[in-house]
Specification:
alpha+beta, 4-stranded mixed β-sheet, 2 domains, Glutaredoxin, 4 strands
Length: about 180
Amino acid sequence: MVIKVFLASSSGSTAIKKKQQDVVGFLEALKVEYTELDIACNEKNRMWMRENVPSEKKPSNGIPLPPQIFNEDSYCGDYDTFFDAKEDNSVYAFLGLPPPPGSKVESLLFSPHNKEIPEEERNGDAHTEEEEEQEGEGGEVEEGDAAVDEAMERDAVEDETPAEEDEVVEGADEVTEGTVIGT
């Protein structure tokens, strides 16, 4: 599988140049094999790219701008979708490539213990409705948990209080030192 990156070697747009450099630089950093296909100097490349970008992905004027990324003949996306995949750490999936052996992505995807993780847990909301109902039925809260919560609240209040008191005391010292008594 060869990744094809359609670029314009002589683009007058600095935004397009930066996007092209970002894609190519990131692919090089990941050591992904790719081929650069210039649409500025090669009419066949330009026509092939324009014909193979899906119509729903084309801009309103109908002419897709570089960089455009393909895996062989399969369209992967443009710079914006590449950037989103990069931000989500899903570039290999975006490119239609398996993650490299030994990578974190590979160990997460192909772990024998890997199960589908519910969305609530992925978002950090590990409580289920059933757990919340059980807590609410008896109205029981474990003493250890309540004590920990109270201690954390006290610590938070204590952390704020000394700073305020110090400011007040310092201000009071300045006033009393400069005050003349018995004039």
